[in-house]
């Protein structure tokens, strides 16, 4: 079948030279069940108006619902910021600087003073404790204190992590 007339109408349609009757001819042509493959890409353009008539439009209360959602006041979730929280970035920066300075000093000492085992005089070292059991007890007590300090720091870190998790979940609600 020859579709030259439809092609001419489409060409005139793209140049905005068609009349209302000619556009109606195009709508009728594209509303058929069987449209040639070369015209399928234009079908949705001309059939849209007929499909839009069957679709359900927005209800009368649509604007009211949207405005109610927009104007709905959300409660402000205020957080108290402690002095510790305010200075925490400063503490972190100071810790980073301290670590860098310490590592720099250690690297400088290790490269500038390469000591051999021959230079160490072991005879100058003296035992602090005569009894090894007393020395062991002192070291054991010192290590227990260090262990308790780490345990307390771990507990406070866990509490801080739980607080942060709760804050994030509250924000997401």
Distance between the termini: 63 Å
For the secondary structure, the number of strands is: 0
Q: Beta fraction of the residues?
A: under 5%
Whole-number mean pLDDT: 82
Number of domains: 2
Structural class: mainly alpha
Helix content: 55-70%
Tell me which oligomeric state these chains represent: single chain
**What is the approximate shape?**
elongated
Main β sheet profile: none
Poorly predicted runs: none
Number of helices: 6
- Strand/helix succession: HHHHHH
What is the alpha-carbon Rg in Å?
A: 41 Å
Descriptive account of the structure:
With 173 residues, this protein is an all-alpha fold. It has two domains: 4-71, no CATH class; 83-111 and 127-172. The protein has helices at 4-14, 20-30, 40-54, 62-71, 83-112, 132-172. Helix 1 (4-14) packs across helix 2 (20-30). The protein is elongated, with a radius of gyration of 41 Å. The chain starts with a helix and ends with a helix. The mean pLDDT is 82.
Index terms:
173 residues, mainly alpha, 2 domains, 6 helices, elongated
Would you kindly provide a brief summary of this structure?
With 173 residues, the protein is mainly α. 68% of the residues lie in helices and 0% in strands.
Present the secondary structure layout:
Blueprint: H1 4-14, H2 20-30, H3 40-54, H4 62-71, H5 83-112, H6 132-172
């Amino acid at each position: 079948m020859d579709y030259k007339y439809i092609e001419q109408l489409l060409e005139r349609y793209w140049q905005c030279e068609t009349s209302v009757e000619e556009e109606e001819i195009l709508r009728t042509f594209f509303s058929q069940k069987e449209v040639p493959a070369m015209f399928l890409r234009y079908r949705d353009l001309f059939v849209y108006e007929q499909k839009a008539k069957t679709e359900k439009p927005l209800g009368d209360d649509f604007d009211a619902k949207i405005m109610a959602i927009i104007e709905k006041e959300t409660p402000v979730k205020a957080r108290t910021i402690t002095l510790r929280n305010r200075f925490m970035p400063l503490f972190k920066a100071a810790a980073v600087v301290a670590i860098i300075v310490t590592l720099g000093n250690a690297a400088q000492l290790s490269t500038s003073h390469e000591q051999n085992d021959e230079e160490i005089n072991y005879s100058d070292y003296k035992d602090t404790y005569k009894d090894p059991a007393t020395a062991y007890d002192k070291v054991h007590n010192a290590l227990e204190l260090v262990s308790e300090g780490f345990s307390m720091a771990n507990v406070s870190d866990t509490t801080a992590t739980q607080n942060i998790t709760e804050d994030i979940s509250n924000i997401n609600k």
